[in-house]
Amino acid sequence: MKFRTLSEAKAELGTLVRLAERGETVVISRHGKPAVRLSPVGEDDFELTAGEAGKLNAWLRRERAAGRTREYSSMEEMLKKSRPRTKK
């Protein structure tokens, strides 16, 4: 487990995110007290309700119509392709 102050975490956020992606837990303190824990996100942590998925797909259609997105068949496909692969 790694411990960092908030100012240290700001300066090295990219490194801390990479550590968390690899399974390391990072605790960030604020005013000398532990405030948050940075840890990897698993497949089970990211579940959308039908309503949320519908809203995201509607947003995706609007963005696609405006020419601001890559072509994916659905928001779920885009999220699946953009998720980092975790080692198990």
Report on the structure:
The protein is of the alpha+beta class and 88 residues long. The protein folds into two domains: 2-38, YefM-like fold (3-Layer(aba) Sandwich), CATH 3.40.1620; 43-82, no CATH class. Helices cover 44% and strands 17% of the residues. The protein contains four helices and three strands; from the N terminus they run βααββαα. It has helices at residues 6-11, 13-21, 50-65, 75-82; strands at residues 2-5, 26-30, 33-38. A three-stranded mixed beta sheet has the order 1-2-3. Strand 2 and strand 3 (33-38) form a beta hairpin. The longest helix is centred in the middle third of the chain and has 16 residues, at 50-65. It is elongated. The two termini are 18 Å apart. The model has no long low-confidence stretch (mean pLDDT 85).
Question: Which secondary structure elements does this structure contain, and how are they paired or packed?
Answer:
Elements: E1 2-5, H1 6-11, H2 13-21, E2 26-30, E3 33-38, H3 50-65, H4 75-82
Parallel strand pairs: 1-2
Antiparallel strand pairs: 2-3
